[in-house]
Amino acid sequence: MPTLALVVPCFNEEEIIVSSLDILSDLLGRFIAQGKISETSFIVLVDDGSKDKTILLASQYKSSKVKILKLASNVGHQHALLAGLHFVTGKVDCCVSIDADLQDDIEVIAQMVDFYNAGAQIVYGIRDNREADSFFKKGTAVVFYQLMIKMGVPLVFNHADFRLLSNNVLIELQKYQEVNLFLRGLFPQMGFSSAQVFYSRRKRMAGESKYPFFKMLKLAVNGITSFTNYPLKIITALGSLIFGASILATMWILVVVLQGKNVPGWASITLPIYFLGGIQLLAIGILGEYISRIYLETKRRPLYHVEKIIE
């Protein structure tokens, strides 16, 4: 029987944290009683610098199966999750990461463990039904995954951060020291044997999503710039296209001049200036995104700070 850890990053989840711990604790107890996992299995709650009563309520939760990792400040979901994965490395046979809102179906964790016992090192939780999400959320999610995949980011469609990882994968994960972290693309790139389980996404029990549109957009930009130089290739192609168009325009102007004709109006001058100026600013902005990430990587600062561990 494998020792399993449930890694649960959270931020300002006072409305649901106690209910979530109740549900996850019951799940562990049921799996232990069924002989599916070891009695030494546990839950790791990673508090990502919450400003509400999340850490207070969690610390008052009476269960020997719950361990709390309190980070000193808010470092973002990906780094908080990484802190939890680092914490359980070497302590378990496998772990499952899941968000505190429990919109992902915890019942498929049993299937994940079965796939692990069959030899899979990574088991991805795939959302095959997002009826619980708003129209806007579903639409932006589809665009997000399709855009990332088309740009060459190694991504599993409709998979977020609900997955099982073996201890072998956790050990290899420690070799990655990058600041611009995008775990959804990192694990598929590793190449370990994998499996997939499918489930329907549920509604939140209470509270609001901690991953609004702009955070999702930031995550997408981080994933693209961390795994592909596709935007730089677009700039090169666009620059070549504009250069070719300018050569043709020059030839046309020469023909018009030789014919003794004048082209009246300011549009033929003003519009190209604004167009080329916009392209240049866009190119500089994309280059700036890559340079800023190089700058952050070279500083090699810690990815998170653990303020205390409550066991």
Could you give a quick summary of the protein structure above?
The protein is of the alpha/beta class. The protein contains ten helices and eight strands. 49% of the residues lie in helices and 16% in strands.
Describe this structure in words.
- This protein is α/β, with parallel strands linked by helices.
- The protein folds into 2 domains: 193 residues, Alpha-Beta Complex (Spore Coat Polysaccharide Biosynthesis Protein SpsA, Chain A); 70 residues.
- It has an 8-stranded mixed beta sheet with strand order 7-5-6-4-1-2-3-8, with helices on both faces.
- Helix 2 links the parallel strand 2 and strand 3.
- It is elongated, with a radius of gyration of 25 Å.
- The mean pLDDT is 82.
Give the arrangement of secondary structure elements:
Blueprint lengths: L3 E7 L6 H17 L8 E6 L6 H6 L6 E6 L5 H12 L5 E4 L11 H9 L4 E8 L5 H16 L8 E8 H7 L9 H8 L3 E7 L12 H15 L2 H29 L8 H33 L6 E5 L1
Helix pairs in contact: 5-8, 9-10
Biggest sheet, strands in spatial order?
Answer: 7-5-6-4-1-2-3-8
How many E-type strands?
A: 8
- Binned, the helix content reads 40-55%
What is the total domain count? 2
Strand content: 15-25%
The shape is elongated
CATH level 1 class label of the largest domain: Alpha Beta
Determine the N-to-C terminus distance: 23 Å
- Looking at the overall shape, the CATH architecture of the largest domain is Alpha-Beta Complex
What's the Cα radius of gyration?
25 Å
Which ranges are low-confidence, i.e. pLDDT below 50, for 5 or more consecutive residues?
none
Largest sheet: 8 strands, mixed
Number of helices: 10
Mean pLDDT equals 82
CATH evolutionary superfamily of the largest domain? Spore Coat Polysaccharide Biosynthesis Protein SpsA, Chain A
Task: Give the structural class.
Answer: alpha/beta
* Element pattern in H and E: EHEHEHEHEHEHHEHHHE
CATH topology of the largest domain: Spore Coat Polysaccharide Biosynthesis Protein SpsA, Chain A
